């Protein structure tokens, strides 16, 4: 079982940070950039957008972690691809991370896109950005 892991978009600094701890009752969290032991600071929950780690890594050599709101490129073995945003669909009675169908018109998946991409030898998935630091990657996609 994966330990829950989060990152956060800091609305004040306009920067993505890792989350070391969340204090729900006191409504703040500890954030850090690269090293938890250097430069850790607090932010009110209202000043950040929290994103959960899916528990999956992409297919690049670096094996980037796939988070909610990551922009991913899904490529088949023919070189065809689509670009989409990883979303959490619990609000729609679908308790899973997935990519909305509006991003992959003309493609067919028997189940969740992320699970199929990770289990299918003919598909690869790559993190190419996120909606906060690289929104331009979605230009003309939706």
UniProtKB/TrEMBL annotation:
Cross-referenced InterPro entries: CHP16711, YopX-like_C, YopX_protein
Residue stretches making up the YopX protein domain: 5-138
One Pfam assignment: YopX
Residues annotated as transmembrane: none
NCBIfam families attached to this UniProt entry: phage_TIGR01671
Name under which the protein is recorded: YopX protein domain-containing protein
């Amino acid at each position: 079982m994966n330990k829950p892991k989060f990152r956060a978009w800091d609305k004040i600094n306009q920067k993505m940070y890792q989350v070391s701890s969340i204090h729900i009752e006191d409504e703040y969290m500890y954030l850090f950039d690269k090293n938890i032991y250097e430069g850790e600071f607090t932010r009110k929950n209202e000043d950040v957008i929290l994103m959960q780690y899916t528990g999956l890594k992409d297919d690049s050599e670096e094996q980037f972690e796939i988070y909610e709101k990551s922009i991913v490129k899904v490529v088949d073995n023919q070189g065809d691809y689509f670009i989409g945003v990883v979303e959490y669909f619990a609000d729609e009675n679908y308790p899973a991370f997935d990519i909305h169908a509006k991003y992959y018109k003309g493609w067919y998946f028997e189940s969740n896109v992320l699970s199929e991409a990770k289990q299918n030898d003919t598909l690869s998935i790559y993190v190419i950005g996120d909606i906060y630091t690289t929104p331009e990657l979605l230009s003309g996609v939706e």
